[in-house]
Amino acid sequence: MKGQKPHRRQNLLTGEWVLVSPHRMGRPWQGETGDSTPPSGFAHDPACYLCAGNARVGGVINPTYDGVWVFDNDFPALLAPDGEAGQTSDPVLVTEPETGVCRVICYTPDHSKTMASMTRDEIASVVHVWTAQWQELSARPDLASVTIFENRGAMMGASNPHPHGQIWATSSIPNELATEVGRQAAWFDKNGTALLMDYLERELTDGSRILCSSAHFVALVPFWAAWPFETLVLPRRAVAALDELRAEEQSDLADVLRRLTASYDRVFNAPFPYTMGLHQRPTQSPAPGFVFHMHFYPPLLRSATVRKFMVGFEMLAMAQRDLTPEAAAERLRTVWVD
After folding, report:
1. pTM higher than 0.90
2. Is a pLDDT exceeding 60 seen at residue 31?
């Protein structure tokens, strides 16, 4: 984008707008700074609830797992159906039941690792488990969507530093996914093409926001990014879910994730917090034109301890950023891991 004037950009996946204010990058900062907590360095922490062989809060003993391990969350946000209706008829105070499954995915028994320090093969094992979990849960008629995600770092609310992610499978389609499904379906109905494939074509032509372009996947800073170093991982082929990926595509995705997360840690030479999530098609309803993709939402702005806050104007009006997506992409490219 030319010039440094304030402007707004539309997120085609949600329809929402982002205010970009490049001229504010020089403003002083005297606000809150967070903590940058390095990994413990211990392969096994006897006090960790997720380490192999340790006891969890409820007294259950973890198995001595040696790879990726999945278990039902001890404190799930969703419960199995219990027969109660849980739905109101009040048109103003509206509720309806929500049931589902919550699971934890331990990426490795090594407490000291993060995805950024794992090998491609180790991350590929995680991708394989994601796929198996998706296949199992998406086949259940009582579940409408499967959200796989990771909160990395205390700044993002991670309750445990052990390398792990989560799965929340819900009986309804959550807000963000529902919006994306609707927007992509509308584009497909109007144009006969997949929105994210058309978008990727333009990004590859432009090049200013591309971080990594491999044989099967592309990592980029989206044109409409709201968070300073937000990234999007897109397949080169229009697939709607993990189980549509071929073996070589799964391996390639693992390598892109390795390079992206390791590069994040180089931006401020410190562990980079983020929320990462996979968006796949709904399980029980059609989603024409929907393309699988991954979001990374890191909060850091100026250093390993200064973050972006979505407050004030962002909460009351629309998202706003000072660092342009193009500048963020250039910063990430200078530290990119091959």
Report:
1. yes
2. no
